[in-house]
Specification:
about 375 residues, mainly alpha, Four Helix Bundle (Hemerythrin (Met), subunit A), 2 domains, two-stranded parallel ribbon, 13 helices, 2 strands, binds 2-acetamido-2-deoxy-beta-D-glucopyranose
């Protein structure tokens, strides 16, 4: 890692990950790979970028204590639209018309950017580091914006935090203050609100000089290794329909995803690998796992939401964003996360007490 402020943040993030055995947090950072989001997977690609949603993975099967484990390519694992539905619900509950106005914003962007002067206006409105010049730039811009809303859903914490960006308490509520329009506003007014909203995420500290559509988080961490694992071990179909969610409709496209993996790593994902190896929903033979789910966390779409056995425990944290329970305790922690931690500790104690006392000896060759 290079020295510098950005990496310092990452080092801290990494330390937190390791301390809390929270390897799942790697994925949010990993997703910021501009290889994928900006260039559509290939540094020299001339194709439109593959949408973020087609590239979402989690590593549940690799890190079995993480909340989400049921993503897999077979449609009966997790419906592909569930993730983005939860993102949308987070915005819907955080302010009047908030989700509706974001849903409208995509068409407004298309309309406004259909002229050169509109492209320039939008670039200035968002204080972009580099002005949008082409339809490709607009597609990248929309991906970046979508990823911004997704990230906010993951880090909608009840207190100030700086996991992906420095943010105020309940950042989506702050964002939604700029998105409360009724149906009559012009595209320009709407997009002005959207730019103010985006700047809550990108400029909370007031220190940002411009918005860079090549990045959505404060840095990156072990990206390629993570994507390789995702390409070889777990496929997580994602899709949007623009009705149950606030995004532009986009179907899941396994072939496009597979081609991307092939182009970058020379590997193709096996659609059902995770289900075959780990058993999909049939995991009753495992033991001593707590599946905790934050109700605000879009990843809870793939979570285990019921107790399977008395050592395969599901915990719901309705007010929790991404792994809120694994963060340090805070005065503003909602009661649901305090209760979740208490249950977790209870099981840890129980399992440790019942573990065999003598260390296992390695088999002699
Ligand atoms: C598109 O933008 C123009 C102004 O550039 C505006 O007059 C028109 O109403 C917009 N169309 C839609 C569908 O919003
Ligand atoms: C960020 O906020 C500061 C302080 O309000 C402001 O001076 C600056 O122009 C903002 N940057 C962007 C990119 O909007
Ligand atoms: C924008 O982000 C990319 C990727 O992190 C970086 O390479 C580039 O230098 C940044 N541009 C500006 C103007 O900060
Ligand atoms: C699973 O059992 C624990 C108690 O052992 C309980 O706290 C928790 O709410 C249960 N989970 C669900 C999803 O019902």
């Amino acid at each position: 890692m290079k020295p510098g402020g950005r990496n310092e943040v990452l080092d801290r993030a990494a330390a937190v990950c390791i301390l809390t055995l929270c390897f799942g947090c790697l994925h949010v950072i990993a997703l910021k790979s501009q290889l994928f989001t900006r260039l559509g997977g290939l540094p020299s690609s001339t194709e439109f970028p593959i949408n973020y949603k087609t590239l979402y993975f989690d590593q549940k099967f690799l890190e079995p204590w993480q909340p989400q484990h049921q993503y897999g390519s077979s449609p009966d694992m997790v419906p592909c639209g569930d993730f983005y539905k939860i993102v949308t619900q987070d915005f819907a509950r955080s302010g009047h018309n908030c989700d509706a106005n974001i849903r409208k914003s995509w068409k407004a962007i298309n309309n406004v950017t259909s002229t050169a002067s509109g492209l320039q206006w939008l670039s200035e409105e968002f204080s972009l580091c580099a002005p949008l010049k082409s339809a490709m730039d607009v597609a990248i811009f929309k991906n970046w914006l979508q990823e911004t809303w997704v990230n906010l859903a993951m880090v909608d914490y009840p207190y100030e935090a700086n996991f992906l960006q420095p943010l105020p308490p309940w950042p989506i509520q702050v964002v939604c203050k700029y998105l409360g329009f009724d149906s009559t506003v012009s595209d320009y007014q709407l997009l002005h609100g959207v730019s103010q909203a985006a700047k809550v995420y990108y400029n909370y500290t007031g220190s940002s000089s411009c918005l860079n559509i090549s990045q959505t988080a404060t840095g990156s961490l072990g990206l390629l290794g993570w994507f390789y694992q995702a390409c070889t071990e777990m496929v997580m179909p994602m899709c949007t329909d623009g009705v149950q969610d606030m995004f532009e409709p986009e179907e899941w496209n396994f072939q496009a995803f597979s081609d991307e993996c092939n182009a970058i790593f020379g590997v193709r994902p096996r659609a059902d690998w995770a289900g075959i190896v780990y058993g999909g929903k049939d995991i009753i033979a495992h033991s001593n796992i707590i599946f905790s789910n934050g109700g605000l966390d879009p990843w809870s779409a793939g979570g285990v939401t019921y107790n399977i056995t008395d050592s395969l425990i599901s915990i719901m944290i309705p007010d929790g964003a991404h792994h809120l329970d694994l963060r340090y305790s805070n005065d503003n922690d909602p009661p649901s996360v305090r209760a979740a931690r208490a249950v977790e500790v209870k099981y840890f104690r129980e399992w440790i007490n019942h573990a065999p006392k003598t260390p296992r000896t390695a088999p002699t060759p």
